[in-house]
């Protein structure tokens, strides 16, 4: 079985029609603005992890990105760019690839709705597959991605200088003399050619980033200094992780899930590699799993809480010349932000705009910001969203702002007293949420009542 067949088989994606279509490739339009719409040939590489694309014109340079860098795939007109061309391309042919971090979106238009769905479903499958990878596979894949980025001539090999530069890019703090010694011994450069291939680099990275602190803990709990027996793991869970569950069963599960050696699994033991994988996983986090969800008392006034807030939410880049975009609001709200900033100024044609005043940052419409807030405010959290409005608008355009807030947000906007009485303090997140839910129900009841009356008349 070759490498791609093995990957398809073990990833559980063998025979997936969408991925098979992506491996063949297709032409789609890459959209940067209403006027910049160019055709590119997109193809999933044989590693089933890298998307490759280039211009249809011969000789043009190509680009790639790893699926590991993709946060989510949005379907339809769900970006500022795609909204701007909504009258030209239907939503069922459009999708947006959103990357982790500050990297800009990739907005695409397929030739047909079926083709768009094939790529949307295929990419979502690859994201799901990455999320379901074991810790060892995730680490190997991550290191491999870095190796490919640094391998500029695509020969699959790197000398020590190239490896050293790559490790610095990866923020690995190392002693150069020690690193060179590890590089030259047969443990890393097995081929003895003065260069490391992909698998050798993975081994070298693991040697250079050896965790002496974790090794010390491992040896403290190991009965023989070589491995952790199930009993050793139970002691560790009891003493260090303060587990109050069925420790015996939990220790068995940890060995089953994190231990890479089949021999150790048969012995009901965990090697140092398995222990390292466990501690580096979410399950081995120092934070209590009980605190991952909402566990605090949410009935106190809003001012009793730290509120996840965003400054200059609309800016995608620097504060002097950067791009303003509704994407900033979408990303902030999708990450649980509960307070977003909106700097409002008078705009053309009576429409208020949002930008960093007295600078060269680009401008966006206030109504587009409100639309984004209305659409994404409660996708991640049901608790209130505060619009921190820095208002520089004239009275006339303030009236326009008020109209947009009322018409776009509707019953999502708090426009009166929560219980019909003058408040003596700020409401709690819990009360605000329940009030919003109650107002939505009343709104739907009124809508149904009006429809019945209309039909009768």
UniProtKB/TrEMBL annotation:
Gene Ontology process terms (BP): intracellular signal transduction; lipid catabolic process
- Which Gene3D superfamilies does UniProt cross-reference here? EF-hand (1.10.238.10), Phosphatidylinositol (PI) phosphodiesterase (3.20.20.190), Pleckstrin-homology domain (PH domain)/Phosphotyrosine-binding domain (PTB) (2.30.29.30)
Matching entries from InterPro entries are given as: EF-hand-dom_pair, EF_Hand_1_Ca_BS, EF_hand_dom, PH-like_dom_sf, PH_domain, PI-PLC_fam, PLC-like_Pdiesterase_TIM-brl, PLC_EF-hand-like
Places the protein is found: Cytoplasm; Endoplasmic reticulum; Membrane; Nucleus
**Residue ranges of the EF-hand domain?**
138-173
Q: Which UniProt keywords apply?
A: Calcium, Cytoplasm, Endoplasmic reticulum, Hydrolase, Lipid degradation, Lipid metabolism, Membrane, Metal-binding, Nucleus, Repeat, Transducer
EC number from the UniProt entry? 3.1.4.11
Q: What cofactor(s) does the depicted protein rely on?
A: Ca(2+)
Q: Which residues form a coiled coil?
A: none
Q: How does this protein sit in the membrane? A: Peripheral membrane protein
Q: Report a single Gene Ontology molecular function.
A: phosphatidylinositol phospholipase C activity
Q: What top-tier enzyme class does this entry carry?
A: hydrolase
GO cellular component term, pick one: plasma membrane
Instruction: Decide whether keyword Nucleus is in the record.
Output: yes
Pfam families given in the database record:
EF-hand_like, PH, PI-PLC-X
**Record's PROSITE patterns?**
EF_HAND_1, EF_HAND_2, PH_DOMAIN, PIPLC_X_DOMAIN
Boundaries of each PH domain copy? 20-128
> For this UniProt entry, what is the primary localization, expressed as one broad class?
cytoplasm
Q: Which reaction does it catalyse?
A: a 1,2-diacyl-sn-glycero-3-phospho-(1D-myo-inositol-4,5-bisphosphate) + H2O = 1D-myo-inositol 1,4,5-trisphosphate + a 1,2-diacyl-sn-glycerol + H(+); a 1,2-diacyl-sn-glycero-3-phospho-(1D-myo-inositol) + H2O = 1D-myo-inositol 1-phosphate + a 1,2-diacyl-sn-glycerol + H(+)
Name assigned to this protein: Phosphoinositide phospholipase C
Its lineage opens with: Eukaryota, Metazoa, Chordata, Craniata, Vertebrata
């Amino acid at each position: 079985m070759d490498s791609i067949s093995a990957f398809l088989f073990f990833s559980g994606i063998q025979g997936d029609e969408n991925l098979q279509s992506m491996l063949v490739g297709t032409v789609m339009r890459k959209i940067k603005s209403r006027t910049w719409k160019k055709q590119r040939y997109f193809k999933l590489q044989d590693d089933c992890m890298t998307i490759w694309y280039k211009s249809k014109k011969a000789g043009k340079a190509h680009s790639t990105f790893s699926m590991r860098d993709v946060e989510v795939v949005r379907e339809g007109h769900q970006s500022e760019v795609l909204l701007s061309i909504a009258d030209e391309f239907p939503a069922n042919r459009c999708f947006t690839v959103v990357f982790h971090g500050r990297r800009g979106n990739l907005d695409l238009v397929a030739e047909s709705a079926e083709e768009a769905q094939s790529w949307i479903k295929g990419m979502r499958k690859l994201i799901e597959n990455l999320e379901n990878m074991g810790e060892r596979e995730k680490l190997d894949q991550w290191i491999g991605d870095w190796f490919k980025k640094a391998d500029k001539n695509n020969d699959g090999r790197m000398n020590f200088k190239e490896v050293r530069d790559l490790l610095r890019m990866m923020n690995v703090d190392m002693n150069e003399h020690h690193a060179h010694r590890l590089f030259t011994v047969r443990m890393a450069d097995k081929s003895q050619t003065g260069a490391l291939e992909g698998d050798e680099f993975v081994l070298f990275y693991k040697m250079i980033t050896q965790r002496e602190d974790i090794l010390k803990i491992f040896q403290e709990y190991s009965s023989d200094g070589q491995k952790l027996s199930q009993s050793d793991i139970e002691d560790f869970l009891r003493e260090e992780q303060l587990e109050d569950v069925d420790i015996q069963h939990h220790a068995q599960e940890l060995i089953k899930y994190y231990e890479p050696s089949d021999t150790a699994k048969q012995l009901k033991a965990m090697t140092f590699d398995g222990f390292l994988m466990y501690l580096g996983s979410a399950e081995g986090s120092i934070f209590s799993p009980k605190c991952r969800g909402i566990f605090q008392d949410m009935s106190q006034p809003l001012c009793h809480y730290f509120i996840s807030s965003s400054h200059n939410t609309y800016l995608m880049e620097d504060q002097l010349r950067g791009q303003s975009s509704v994407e900033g609001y979408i990303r902030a709200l999708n990450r649980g932000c509960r307070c977003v900033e909106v700097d409002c100024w008078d705009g053309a044609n009576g429409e208020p705009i949002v930008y960093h005043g007295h600078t060269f940052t680009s401008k966006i419409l206030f109504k587009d910001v409100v639309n984004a807030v209305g659409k994404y405010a409660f996708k991640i959290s049901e608790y209130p969203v505060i619009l921190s409005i820095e208002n520089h608008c004239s009275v006339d355009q303030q009236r326009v702002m008020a109209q947009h807030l009322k018409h776009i947000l509707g019953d999502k906007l708090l426009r009166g007293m929560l219980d019909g009485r003058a408040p003596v303090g700020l409401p709690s997140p819990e009360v605000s949420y329940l009030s919003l839910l109650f107002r939505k129900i009343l709104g739907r009841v009124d809508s149904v009542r009006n429809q019945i009356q209309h039909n009768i008349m």
